[in-house]
C-alpha cells in the first residue's frame, strides 16, 4: 500500500491573502479556509497545518474545518524555543505542553516542533544539552496524551547548527531516548548543509516517523528571486516542483520502501509559481514514482 500523500498549508504562503510568513510585495488571493478546500480538490489524503497561521482559531473549530474537508489533520507544526538554560527550561516546556495539548485536541497524531533559536554566545555543546532536556520533557508529555513529537533535519538557519545534518538529528534522538520523539526527513534540507540526501536519510532512518518531499535548484549569479534560501557556504537556492530540482527523489523513495517506511509523504513547495498548478503535478509525479 502506498504511503498517504499530504499537503502543508505553507505551500501556499506566497499566495495567501491575509496571513503569510514570507515578506513580499505582491497581494495574495487565497484565504486559509480556501487553502484547505484546494488541498481536497488536488487529491491530497491529509493535511499538515502551521500554528503561525491558525493560532487565533480555536482547536475545536480547526478540527471541524479539517473534518468537513474530509482530510485528516495528521501533523500540527509550531515553533517553541527549547534551546534555553535550565532556569528557563520548565517555562519553555510548559509552553510547548500547551501546544501539544492543542495538537491532541485537534486529533493530529504528530506534532512537529521547530525547537528554538541557537544563541551565538553559548557553546553549541551546552545548547545541545539544553535542547535534549527540553525535548525529553516534551516527549514525555506527548507520549502521555497519545501523540508523537517530531523534528526535522532543518534548513531554517536559527536551528540549523544543531539540527541541520542527519547525523546531528539522529544524535539528538538517541539522547532523548523516547518512542514519543521521532524525526522527519526533509529531502531538500541536506542541500543547505552540503550533505548528500541519501546519507542524511541513512543516518535518520532508525528514528524516522515522517517525510517531507521538497526540491530546490541553485540560482544563477544575479538571478532575481523574491523567495530563496542560502546554504551554509553561501550557495543560493530557490524551491521548485519536485521533478525540477536537483534532488533525485526516485532513489530516496525506493530507499524508503526498502526500509519498510509506513508513514506519510508530505509535499512541500517553496517556489514562487502558483502552488495549485505545481502541487497538482507534484502529486501525480509522486504517485507515478510509487507505482
Description:
The chain is of the alpha/beta class and 291 residues long. The chain has a single domain (73-290), classed as Divalent-metal-dependent TIM barrel enzymes (TIM Barrel), CATH 3.20.20. The chain is built from 10 helices and 11 strands. It has helices at residues 32-41, 51-54, 59-69, 86-105, 124-144, 160-163, 166-176, 197-204, 249-258, 275-290, and strands at residues 5-8, 47-50, 73-79, 110-114, 148-152, 181-186, 208-213, 215-218, 229-230, 236-240, 265-267. Helix 4 packs parallel to helix 5, helix 5 (124-144) packs across helix 7 (166-176) and helix 7 runs parallel beside helix 8.
List keywords for this structure.
291 residues, alpha/beta, eight-stranded parallel β-barrel, three-stranded antiparallel β-sheet, 11 strands
Rg from C-alpha positions? Answer: 18 Å
Order of strands in the sheet with the most strands?
A: 1-2-3-4-5-6-7-11
State the share of residues found in helices, binned by percent: 25-40%
Strand content: 15-25%
- Quick check: average pLDDT? 97
The first-level CATH class is given as Alpha Beta
Outline the biggest β-sheet: 8 strands, parallel, barrel
CATH homologous superfamily title: Divalent-metal-dependent TIM barrel enzymes
In DSSP terms (H or I, runs of 4 or more residues), the helix count works out at 10
Global morphology: globular
Q: Would you report the number of β strands?
A: 11
Structural class: alpha/beta
Low-confidence stretches: none
Amino acid at each position: 500500500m502506498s504511503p498517504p500523500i499530504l499537503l502543508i498549508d505553507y505551500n501556499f504562503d506566497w499566495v495567501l491573502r491575509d496571513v503569510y510568513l514570507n515578506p513580499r510585495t505582491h497581494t495574495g488571493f487565497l484565504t486559509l479556509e480556501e487553502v484547505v478546500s484546494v488541498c481536497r480538490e488536488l487529491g491530497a489524503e491529509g493535511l499538515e497545518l502551521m500554528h503561525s497561521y491558525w493560532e487565533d482559531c480555536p482547536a475545536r473549530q480547526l478540527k471541524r474545518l479539517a473534518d468537513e474537508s474530509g482530510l485528516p489533520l495528521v501533523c500540527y507544526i509550531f515553533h517553541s524555543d527549547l534551546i534555553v538554560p535550565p532556569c528557563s527550561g520548565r517555562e519553555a516546556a510548559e509552553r510547548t505542553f500547551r501546544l501539544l495539548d492543542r495538537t491532541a485536541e485537534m486529533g493530529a497524531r504528530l506534532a512537529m516542533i521547530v525547537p528554538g533559536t541557537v544563541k551565538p554566545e553559548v557553546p553549541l555543546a551546552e545548547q545541545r544539552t539544553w535542547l535534549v532536556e527540553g525535548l525529553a520533557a516534551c516527549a514525555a508529555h506527548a507520549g502521555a496524551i497519545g501523540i508523537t513529537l517530531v523534528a526535522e533535519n532543518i534548513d531554517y538557519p536559527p536551528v540549523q547548527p544543531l539540527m541541520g545534518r542527519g547525523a546531528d538529528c539522529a544524535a539528538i534522538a538517541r539522547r532523548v531516548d523516547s518512542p514519543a520523539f521521532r524525526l522527519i526527513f526533509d529531502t531538500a534540507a541536506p542541500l543547505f548543509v552540503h550533505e548528500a540526501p541519501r546519507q542524511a536519510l541513512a543516518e535518520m532512518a532508525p528514528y524516522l516517523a515522517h517525510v517531507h518531499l521538497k526540491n530546490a535548484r541553485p540560482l544563477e549569479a544575479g538571478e532575481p528571486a523574491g523567495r530563496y534560501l542560502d546554504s551554509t557556504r553561501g550557495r543560493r537556492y530557490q524551491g521548485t516542483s519536485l521533478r525540477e530540482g536537483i534532488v533525485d527523489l526516485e532513489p530516496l523513495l525506493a530507499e524508503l520502501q526498502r526500509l519498510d517506511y509506513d508513514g506519510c509523504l508530505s509535499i512541500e513547495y517553496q517556489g514562487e509559481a502558483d502552488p495549485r498548478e505545481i502541487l497538482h503535478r507534484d502529486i501525480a509525479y509522486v504517485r507515478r514514482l510509487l507505482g
